[in-house]
């Protein structure tokens, strides 16, 4: 972070480990996808590849990490959020839906509401990116398996697409 005069002020450490990616050649393990976005004026979300994602409160400097069981053989490549959910694009581990809760950010990294398209039951491909229109459509870029346009069946989360 920098102060208003542009000088260095402080650093918030997101991980004590190097940010690497699974399922890639060793020489490419540091060449993964990373995404960082503001959720609110003081909450930031960042992807950390094989370590999942973090939610950072810039006021308190609290860093909330996704649970270690979120990823088995995938990498958190991207995320999207709308007024209901955070959608984590978890590579070979599919699409992971969590509650969007800016009052209690730990809820955004707690056990998922639902997981779509895990690699064991899906065609080859890796969930690389995701977008939501905030109502009923979710678009997923899934590597070798192309683009999937999903629609919530009940406009909520039972969860069915």
Structure, briefly:
With 161 residues, this protein is mainly β.
Task: Describe the overall structure.
The protein has no helices and eleven strands. The mean pLDDT is 82. Helices cover 0% and strands 29% of the residues. By secondary structure, the protein is mostly beta strands. The strands form three sheets. A four-stranded antiparallel β-sheet has the order 1-2-3-4, with no helix packed on it. The protein has a four-stranded antiparallel β-sheet with strand order 5-6-7-8, with no helix packed on it.
N-to-C terminal Cα separation, in Å? 40 Å
What is the overall pLDDT average?
A: 82
Portion of residues within helices? under 10%
Q: What's the total number of strands? A: 11
Output the structural class. Answer: mainly beta
Largest sheet: 4 strands, antiparallel
Strand content: 25-35%
The secondary-structure element order is EEEEEEEEEEE
> What integer value in Å does the Rg equal?
16 Å
Strands side by side in the biggest sheet: 1-2-3-4
* Low-pLDDT stretches: none
Oligomer: single chain
């Amino acid at each position: 972070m920098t102060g208003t005069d542009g000088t260095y002020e402080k650093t918030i450490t997101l991980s004590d480990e190097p940010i690497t990616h699974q399922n890639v050649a060793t020489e490419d393990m540091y060449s993964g996808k990373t995404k960082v976005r503001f959720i609110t004026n003081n909450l930031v979300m960042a992807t950390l590849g094989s370590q999942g994602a973090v939610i950072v409160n810039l006021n308190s400097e609290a860093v909330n990490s996704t649970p270690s069981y979120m990823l088995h053989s995938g990498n958190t490549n991207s995320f999207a959020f709308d007024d209901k959910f955070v959608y984590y694009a978890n590579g070979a581990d599919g699409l992971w839906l969590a509650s969007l809760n800016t009052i209690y950010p730990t809820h955004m990294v707690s056990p998922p509401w639902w997981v779509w398209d895990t690699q064991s039951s899906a065609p080859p491909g890796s969930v690389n990116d995701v977008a939501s229109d905030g109502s009923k459509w979710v678009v997923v870029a899934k590597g070798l398996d192309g683009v999937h346009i999903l629609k919530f069946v009940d406009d909520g989360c039972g969860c069915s697409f």
